[in-house]
Every structure is written in structure tokens, then in C-alpha cells.
Design brief:
By secondary structure, the protein is an alpha+beta fold. The chain contains 21 helices and 13 strands. The longest helix is centred in the C-terminal third of the chain and has 34 residues.
Length: 613
């Protein structure tokens, strides 16, 4: 392995911030507290996640400091899920969603005791926004906080079953909890919209008076205390309103909301959702990298038969190469796209422009969908070994199922983003974009492939705008959107793919060593061709590719696998993962011996044990 090439890849993959933002968090996971524990009940696993979260908190700087450095927050999102997906969930809810909301909207002297309580992690902070009846429409939530001027308190109440807070961590009553609860602020009979409140949930022995909780059904792998929570006229001190710049109380004790409408104030109150999407994507690509790392290391040792041979590593088969090298290309593409989105986010200190909001939303949806496919592919390609939790990949599959839903369900999020993009520009009479000329073009030419993706994006956008503007038949707005939605979703997805490929090409050009430049160029071509193949019929029908080129796509992909194979060990070395950190037996240098040690199994002395499972 070339250490210079490894360092070059690490620089590109971690955006030059591995040493300052990532290294100590990765090394922290070597602590024995993160060793796999088998035979735990789901509740025991959940309690262990709380213990592990405290270990992480104690080893790093305080949450308030981490929030000041978004790169540090994103790194914290990326690593813990590699060894415990539940620890990731607890940390991100506490650090980003809840404590981030407190710091943004409630960092006032009269709240210092509560801020310090959360900063010290004396109490964990669940984030209670989603309601049982209002999952994808949180702005319509029903939980209410009615102000009582006489006592200077809010009365927090759940008016009906649909308004119960759903999925928040409220099940373990022996863990102190101080939640951020989103509720409708009402004064003198007027509804001012949704605001965040700090609400004590449990004191470490029981739920507080008026707070009720019931556990959600068990989830695979994650043993956390997700629950349904409701409030029965709970008194909350006035100071616990996290109003920030969204309003306040005047000298007469009357609440005055800030200027603007309720929607604007709601989006401001939910401001931590946007960096949360980058945290979710960070965890997703981290799991994707680990899955590919494990699967490729296993594939280099896992023996199978071949014509005339009985001991061929399975990675020598082109079918195995295409599946795992494509997964590797997606991992690189999504990592580089996410780095781009992070840089753009950090560069904007105040109001987030629409284009950046679109970029982050598309990145979240595309990266979590792509990594879901990557993890599923890697699990399958590891055979029966991929099923075991000790080999990690199956657990990552459970993690990804949660990530595609967290901080906005992907389908809803991408549809909303597509609708906003469609509404931004021209509609009637928009000229078609010019298709690139395919004549004589090399299928590995990323400039040509980028032009093809850009053409598809522009044509889908033009078609979507024309569809929404079509007045030749009588339709409601819902009818028009339903006629347009799937085109819009395809447009938003290909915009993400196109942006990812641009980042991929740029990374290859910025590589400081020739082996890395070559490897990344080949991998970028594989990623782009895989995307083109998804919609080959569309490209063929519009003359972007010739019939001969479309027929050549499978051969071109196979040929790229041959060229990429010598670089795979170097390409995964840049992830800065190790068998010691992941503790997955099939990722070890001698996976048979590692699996024997883990299970207590043994074979005849001196016998060579191999598996095709």
C-alpha cells in the first residue's frame, strides 16, 4: 500500500480536516466500552447506548464548543454509528437538534442553569416535534402551550391522540430528560404558531407530573426508548420559552411575535433541521464507507471455486467486482457531494439562500438512498456472514432505514425541493437545451458524461415547468402537481448526481499523486456510466447516446472494473478505517481466525478452513 496515496485520499475524503476534526473521535471508538455485546435485551442495549454517549461526551469538548464548529459536529455524526447506531442517534438529537435549538433560541442569562445542565449532559434532551398524526406536516402540529399571565407560566397540553409526540426518547424514566418540545404558543385566545419550549420530562427516577409516555414497538438493532409522549396541563415557566428573535414579552408582560408570518417563524424555530440533514448524511456515508471496506476486504479472502481451480478469491469474478466497485464509486461520489454541501453551509453565516437549501435537501435524500443501496449490496455480497450483527453491515442497514426518514422523509423532502426549483424559473416558451454530440465520444470521458447528465436535468426541468404551466385543460393545482411530480423528482435526483460527478472530477484533478488521480478518474467514470445506464432509453431516444454506445455500456463497465481492481486497496485505505476499530471478524486480515475467536469455534489442528457462504 502506498502511504503517500493513502494520505492524498484521506485529504480529499475528509476535506483536509481529518486531523483536526475526525481523528480523535475515530480513536475514541477503540475504547473497550464500544466492544460488541451479545445477548443483550433491547432495553439493555438502549441503556448501553446512553452509557456510551456519556463516554463520548466526557472525552470530547463540551457540546457548546462543538456547536460553534460545524465541522466538528459533522465529524461527531460520522463516526459513532460505525460501532453503535443507537449512540449516534442519542448524540445527534442531544447535540444538534435539542441543544442546538437551545443555544440558537434560548442562550439567555435566566436559562444558564438549564443550558449548563444540558452542556454537562446531566440530562439528555429529547427533541419533540413530530406528532402521531402530523409526521410530514409538522407545521400543523396540535400540541399547545397556553400562556397564563397571572402565574407567568405556559400550560402545555396534548389536546387529542393525534397530537401525541411520536418517536422521541421518553421511555427510560431512570434517565434524566430535559426536552425541547415544539408547541403552538397561544395567548389571549390567539395562536402565534409553533415555538420551542424547554420541558423537564423525567428526573432520573420517574416522569414529571403531567407527563405521560408509552413505549413504541421495538425496532431492529436499535434498542432506544422511543416513545409516544403526551402532556396533561403541564406548567412550564415563562423563561422556558425559546423565543430567540421570533418574539418576546413586552414591559406589560404581553407576548409579541416578531414580524412575518407563522410559516416564517416556524422555519426559524426548526432551524437545526438543516444542519441535521448534513449530520444524517454524514452518518450515512460513514456507514457506506465502512460497508464497502468490510465487503472488499472479505472478498479478497473469501474463497470460491472456478473452472480448474478450487481456491479463487471471490473478488476475481467480474460480477462481484461490478457490484462492489459500483458501491465504492457511489461512496466516493456521495462523500464528495456531502463535503461540497458542508462547505457551502459553513460559508453562509446567516440566512440560508434557497439554492443552498436545495443543495442540502438533495444531498440528504440522494446520499441516504444511495447508501441504503450500497449497504444492501455489501451485505448480500458477504453472503451468510453479512447477516451477523458482529460483522456490522446488517446493523448499518437498520441505521439507513432510519436515516431516509430522519430530518424529512426523502420522498417528501425531494418532492418539496423539486417543486421549489420548478417554481423558480421560466415556464412558457422555455427553449430546449442542446444535447451533446455523441459522435466519436469515449464512454469513459467524464466531460461528455457530465454534459449528458446536465442535458437530462435541464430537459426534465423544462418539461416539469411546461407541465405545471399547461392551461390547455382544466385542472386543480393538485392535479397539475400530480401530473408533474415524478418528472420533478427525477430532475432533482439527476441534479444531485450531476453535482456529485462535478465534485468527483474536481477531486481527481486536485489529487496530488498520479496513482490517486488515475484511480479517482476511473471511479468517476464508473459512477457516471452507472447513472447513464439507469436511463439509457431516455438518452438513446434523445440522441445523447448512439445505439452502439448504449449496447457498449455493459462492456465499458466491465472494462472499468479491470482497471479499477489494482487500486481498490488504496482507495479504501483513504477511509482511515481498521479491523480493530470496526471489530468485524470478516474485515480482519485472517477472517477465519477472527471468526473462530469471536464464536469460540475451532477446526482440526492445522486444518485450512474456508467458506463459500
Amino acid at each position: 500500500m502506498n502511504p503517500v496515496a493513502t494520505a492524498d485520499l484521506t485529504r480529499l475524503l475528509f476535506d483536509g480536516r481529518y486531523e483536526q476534526a475526525h481523528k480523535d473521535i475515530g480513536e475514541l471508538l477503540l475504547d473497550p466500552i464500544f466492544d460488541p455485546r451479545e445477548g443483550l435485551t433491547m432495553n439493555e442495549a438502549g441503556k448501553l447506548a446512553y452509557e456510551r454517549s456519556r463516554v463520548v461526551h466526557a472525552a470530547l469538548e463540551r457540546p457548546v464548543e462543538i456547536l460553534r464548529d460545524p465541522w466538528r459536529l459533522f465529524a461527531l455524526a460520522e463516526w459513532p454509528s460505525l460501532v453503535d447506531v443507537s449512540t449516534f442517534s442519542l448524540l445527534m438529537v442531544h447535540y444538534n437538534l435539542s441543544f442546538g435549538t437551545v443555544i440558537e433560541h434560548g442562550d439567555r442569562p435566566e436559562l444558564k442553569d438549564l443550558v449548563d445542565e444540558l452542556d454537562r449532559l446531566d440530562s439528555f434532551s429529547p427533541y419533540m416535534a413530530t406528532e402521531l398524526g402530523y409526521g410530514n406536516n409538522v407545521a400543523a402540529m396540535r400540541t399547545e402551550a397556553v400562556y397564563d399571565a397571572a402565574s407567568e407560566t405556559f400550560v402545555l397540553n396534548t389536546p387529542d391522540a393525534l397530537a401525541q409526540k411520536h418517536m422521541s426518547y421518553s421511555g427510560f424514566q431512570d434517565v434524566p430528560k430535559l426536552a425541547v418540545v415544539m408547541a403552538r404558543l397561544k395567548t389571549d385566545g390567539k395562536d402565534h404558531g409553533v415555538y420551542p419550549f424547554l420541558v423537564p420530562i423525567s428526573d432520573g427516577s420517574r416522569l414529571h407530573e403531567g407527563v405521560h409516555a408509552a413505549p413504541c414497538p421495538e425496532k431492529p438493532v436499535q434498542g432506544l426508548d422511543n416513545g409516544v409522549t403526551w402532556f396533561d396541563h403541564v406548567r412550564v415557566p415563562r423563561r422556558n420559552l425559546l423565543h430567540g428573535d421570533m418574539g418576546g414579552f413586552d414591559e406589560n408582560g404581553a407576548f409579541r411575535p416578531s414580524s412575518g408570518n407563522q410559516r416564517k417563524r416556524f422555519l426559524r424555530a426548526m432551524s437545526r433541521i438543516l444542519p441535521g440533514r448534513l449530520c444524517v448524511s454524514s452518518s450515512a456515508v460513514g456507514a457506506g464507507r465502512a460497508s464497502v471496506y468490510i465487503a472488499l476486504r472479505f472478498a479478497a479472502q473469501r474463497l470460491t471455486n472456478a473452472p480448474g481451480r478450487n481456491d479463487l478469491p471471490v473478488i476475481e469474478y467480474r460480477s462481484h467486482q461490478l457490484a462492489l466497485f459500483t458501491a465504492l464509486s457511489k461512496v466516493y461520489a456521495m462523500t464528495l457531494l456531502l463535503n461540497h454541501a458542508k462547505r457551502e453551509f459553513v460559508a453562509v453565516p446567516d440566512a440560508v439562500p434557497a439554492e443552498l437549501n436545495h443543495l442540502i435537501s438533495i444531498t440528504k435524500a440522494l446520499s441516504t438512498w444511495e447508501m441504503t443501496e450500497v449497504v444492501a449490496t455489501c451485505r448480500e455480497r458477504c453472503g451468510a456472514q453479512g447477516i451477523f450483527s458482529v460483522n456490522r453491515i446488517a446493523d448499518y442497514g437498520s441505521l439507513l432505514q432510519g436515516l431516509v426518514t430522519a430530518e424529512g422523509d426523502n420522498q417528501v423532502l425531494l418532492a418539496t425541493t423539486a417543486g421549489q426549483i420548478i417554481a423558480q424559473g421560466q415556464a412558457e416558451g422555455e427553449a430546449p437545451s442542446e444535447a451533446p454530440d455523441p459522435t466519436g465520444r469515449d464512454l469513459r470521458d467524464t466531460a461528455f458524461l457530465l454534459a449528458a447528465l446536465r442535458h437530462r436535468e435541464q430537459e426534465l426541468l423544462r418539461a416539469a415547468r411546461a407541465s405545471m404551466a399547461d392551461e390547455t385543460r382544466e385542472r386543480t393545482y393538485l392535479d397539475a402537481w400530480n401530473d408533474t411530480m415524478n418528472t420533478g423528482l427525477a430532475m432533482a435526483r439527476v441534479r444531485g448526481v450531476r453535482t456529485a460527478l462535478e465534485c468527483f472530477v474536481e477531486a481527481a484533478e486536485e489529487a496530488e499523486t498520479e496513482p490517486v488521480r488515475t484511480a479517482l478518474g476511473l471511479l468517476a467514470s464508473l459512477y457516471a456510466l452507472t447513472e447513464v445506464q439507469r436511463e439509457a432509453g431516455w438518452y438513446l431516444a434523445r440522441g445523447v447516446f448512439t445505439a452502439d454506445q448504449v449496447e457498449e455500456l455493459p462492456q465499458a463497465l466491465d472494462a472499468l472494473c479491470v482497471l479499477i481492481q489494482p487500486h481498490t486497496e488504496t482507495l479504501i485505505s483513504g477511509f482511515n478505517l481498521s479491523p480493530e476499530l470496526l471489530r468485524a471478524p470478516i474485515a480482519a486480515d485472517d477472517y477465519v481466525a477472527a471468526f473462530q475467536r469471536r464464536t469460540g469455534a475451532f477446526g482440526p489442528a492445522g486444518a485450512q478452513i474456508t467458506t463459500g457462504s
